[in-house]
Amino acid sequence: MNAPRELHATGQRLWLDNITKDLIDSGTLARYVAEFHVTGVTSNPTILQKAVSSGNDYDDAIGSALADGTESVEALIFAIALEDLVAAADLLRPVFDASGGTDGYVSVEVSPDLADDADDTVAAGQELFFLADRPNVMIKVPGTAAGLEAVEELVAVGIPVNVTLLFSTQHYEAAAEAYLRGIERRLAGGLPLPVGSVASVFVSRWDAAADPHLPEELVSRTALAVMQRVFASYQEMLASDRWTRLAEAGALPQKVLWASTGTKNPALPDTFYVGRLAAPGTVDTIPEATLSAFADHGVVGDLLGTDTTDADEVLGDVERAGIDVAALGARLQIDGAAAFRESWAALVACVQRRVDELQPVAP
User: Fold this and answer.
1) Which of these, 50, 15, 49, lies nearest to 33 by C-alpha position?
2) Does some domain include residue 178?
3) What's the CA gap between 150 and 147, in Å, rounded?
């Protein structure tokens, strides 16, 4: 059986962690949607940087934006990214419509430099959403303290949000709380409640950080144990009276999204995390190479449940081996935010070089 189709049948959705002009124009993304049940797309600065630096696909878009008077490199980046964003959103619009707004999204992030400024994050998110002018565009906001303030505000005004850079149960619960507050504000204001959202919890970075300090029997077990706890917390939220009241009024659940599910340890199978995180009502953002591998030889494992007994035992052993799990989760978020800023700076530098190459030299 087609492994992506089998995973789709469990109620989990696959979103591709890649969006480029070539992926869209070549028909590859449409093929992934048709053959591998890909129902969403996420983007990040590193992907766009590689695409801009590896060829001429974006030269026309850059030239057009410059001709239109776009001056700052950041504005230029969003101008060219929006072309891909809109094209992918249009391709996925039938999925969005058929799912009642719970799926079929294209996710784009605001500048990582805004991670500690709630007001500027809200303003940037609103601008991106309205420029795209597509209901299935989701604004990616980091789950920092300021970012969570922005999440609540964006949801309250009806803009779909992908809360990213989450690592722990505590991070997930804070993201869920921000989403719930935004929906409750809409309910109090008599506004329509359906606003799409996902809470993106990063997976493989846990094992990459923990494994070098663990005995062999605990290697590659930390991430899955943390995700088991996150899923149990997610199910607890869905079973709460607070959520039931909102759902009955028409709200959409904020889905847990497994991010960073490509395998970083070469000793592990290349589909190690994908099949082991199957669970209804969740999303897996999957790198393109991992998607191809999963389609070729992936296996869907047992569905996640709410029993955390095994996960608690594993994480207890990890603690006894000398790792403070809570402190590691906090550090992973800080390091992830720094890495996002570095990727953004590299993208800005890359696009600036391309602009310099394309602009005629003054006589």
Assistant:
1) 15
2) yes
3) 5
Q: Is this structure's pTM higher than 0.90?
A: yes
Within-domain flag for 363: no
Measure the CA–CA gap between 130 and 176, rounded to whole angstroms.
Answer: 24
Domain extent, residue 150, equals 3-358
Q: Which residues pair with 26 in a beta bridge?
A: none
Residue 137 domain-assigned (yes or no) = yes
Residue in 139, 110, 146 with CA at minimum distance from that of residue 333:
146
Q: Report CA-CA distances (Å) from 28 to 55, 94, 239.
A: 18, 17, 39
**CATH for 193:** 3.20.20.70
Task: Report yes or no on 126 lying in a domain.
Answer: yes
Q: Does residue 340 contact residue 45 with C-beta atoms inside 8 Å?
A: yes
* Catalytic annotation, residues: 140
Say how many domains are in the chain. Answer: 1
Residues 6+ apart with CB under 8 A from 33: 39, 91, 92, 95
| Segment-wise mean pLDDT, segments of 10 residues, the chain, 363 residues | 91 95 95 97 87 83 80 85 94 97 95 91 96 96 96 98 98 98 98 98 97 96 98 98 97 97 91 95 95 94 95 98 97 94 90 82 43
CA 154 to chain centre: 16
